Amino acid sequence: MSFHNIMDNIVLKMTSLYTLVLLLFLFLSYRPALSFSSRHRQYWGGGGRILSSGEHNGDLVTNLPGQPRVNFQHYAGYVTVNETNGRALFYWFYEAITQPKEKPLVLWLNGGPGCSSVGYGATQEIGPFLVDTDGQGLKFNNFSWNKEANMLFLESPVGVGFSYSNTSSDYDQLGDELTANDAYSFLHNWFQKFPSYRGRTFYIAGESYAGKYVPELAELIHDRNKDPSLYIDLKGILLGNPETSDAEDWMGLVDYAWSHAVISDETHQTIKTSCDFNSTDPWHNEDCSQAVDEVLKQYNEIDIYSLYTSVCFASTASSNDQSMQTSTKRSSKMMPRMLGGYDPCLDGYAKAFYNKPDVQKALHASDGHNLKKWSICNDKIFNDWADSKPSVIPIYKKLISAGLRIWVYSGDTDGRVPVLSTRYSLSSLALPITKSWRPWYHDNEWVV
Ligand SMILES: *[C@@H]1O[C@H](CO)[C@@H](O)[C@H](O)[C@H]1NC(C)=O
Ligand SMILES: *[C@@H]1O[C@H](CO)[C@@H](O)[C@H](O)[C@H]1NC(C)=O
Ligand SMILES: *[C@@H]1O[C@H](CO)[C@@H](O)[C@H](O)[C@H]1NC(C)=O
Ligand SMILES: *[C@@H]1O[C@H](CO)[C@@H](O)[C@H](O)[C@H]1NC(C)=O
C-alpha cells in the first residue's frame, strides 16, 4: 500500500469527522508510484541509523500539561534560519506512532498568510493532540497523520505563532519568497538536529494559502537538489483546498456562493459581467467591487470555511480573529485560513492553551516567565503581505514534468477556497485523465 493510499484513507476519516461531504482528489502524475518499501530500502536497507541521543534531546517534549499518554516521542523548539538578523522558526515534530524509521517525513504548512500550523494543522486538524474545549488540555486524535508519517509542523514565516525575528524590519519584507527561503534554511538546519531524517523520503503538505507556499518550497528544493550536498528526497506535495491561481480562485468563490444559495442571481450576474479577475486590480471596477462586497457580507453570518456548521458565539473566544474572514478584499487578494467548521470556538481554546506559561515552557517556546504572545493568526502579516505569486500553475507544470507527484483534495463545504476554484485552476493544466471520475464512499455511504 503506498503512502498516498494511506493518506487518502486518513483524510477520508478526518474529513468525515469534520462533516465534509465530498472529496475531490486528483493525482497529477506521469509516473507510476514506486512502492513505499522499495523507496525506503534505498536509504534504510539493513543499516538504518537509530536516532542517537544528544542531537536533539533538548527539544524532546517531556511534560506537556494536559497531554494524553502516548508511545511516540515528540519534539518542539526553535531552529535559527538567519543568524545575522536573528530569525528563528518554531516547529513541533511528532514521530510516527509505530515504526518511525520506516515512514516518510511530511512537512505541514497552514496558510493565512499569517496563520499557525501549530494552532490549526497540529491541534485542530491532523496532529495527534487536539486542543480540548476548555483550553486547559489536549485529547488524542484517532485520525492523526502520524499514524502513517513523521509529521513536522512549522510556524512560518517569522511573526507567525512563536516564530520571530530580532530585526523588526524583517516583518516589513514578508512575502512568498522570504517564506520559501526561510523554510528551506529551516529544513537544512533542522536536519542537523535530526540527522537520521536527512535522507528520508519527504513530502510537503498544506492547505489554503499554503497552496502557494507548498509548491514554491517544492520548487526551491527541486532547484537546489542539483547540488548533491543539498539533496532532499522530495517525492511529492499534498494540498487541501489550496489557493492556486487567483483569477480562478475568485471565480470559484463567487460561483460557489451562487450555487449554494448564498447570493442572488442578480449579484452573481453583476460579477460575471463586471469583474475581470485576471486584471491586476479587479476592484477598480465599482460594480464588481460592490457585488463582491455583497458576497463577503453574506459570509458575516455564515462560517465561510464550513458552510453547514455553526459559528462561534462564545464571547470568550477569538472575537478579533473573526474579522480576518472578510477583511480580505481591497487590501489584498489573499484568502485566509481554510478550516473553521467543526468547532469554530477552538481558535479561542488554542489561544488560551498556547499562552499558558507551563505549556510554553514544555514546548521550549519560552522559559515560562518571559512569555511569548501567541495568536492563531497574525492579522498584520496577512494585511501587509507584499509578495504573492498570482498563480502557482507554472510551478505545478515544472514539478509534474520533473516526476513529482501532486495530490489535491477538497472538502466541498469550504466556501473560501472551494472545490470549484480547484477545478477551474487545475483544468488549465489540461492533463490526461488516467482514471475516470468515481464517487467516493465512506463505510458504504455518503458522509453527511
Ligand atoms: C539574512 O537575512 C537578510 C535579510 O533578509 C539577508 O539580506 C541576508 O542575506 C540573510 N543572510 C543569510 C546568511 O542568508
Ligand atoms: C534574539 O535575541 C535574543 C535576545 O538577545 C537572543 O536570546 C536570541 O538568541 C536571538 N535569536 C536569534 C535567532 O538569534
Ligand atoms: C481509533 O481507530 C481505530 C482504527 O484505526 C479503531 O479501531 C478504534 O476504535 C478508534 N478509536 C476510537 C476511540 O474512535
Ligand atoms: C484568465 O486568463 C486566462 C488566460 O487568458 C484564461 O484562460 C482564464 O480563463 C482567465 N480566468 C478568468 C477567471 O477570467
From TrEMBL:
MF terms (GO), sorted A to Z: serine-type carboxypeptidase activity
Q: Name one GO biological process term.
A: proteolysis
Q: What class of enzyme is it?
A: hydrolase
User: What Pfam families does the entry give?
Assistant: Peptidase_S10
Q: Name the SUPFAM superfamilies on file.
A: alpha/beta-Hydrolases (SSF53474)
Q: What is its main location?
A: secreted
Q: Name one GO cellular component term.
A: extracellular region
The keyword NAD belongs to this UniProt entry's keyword annotation: no
Q: What is the designated name of this protein?
A: Carboxypeptidase
Q: To which species is this protein native? A: Glycine max (Soybean)
Underlying gene: LOC100793427
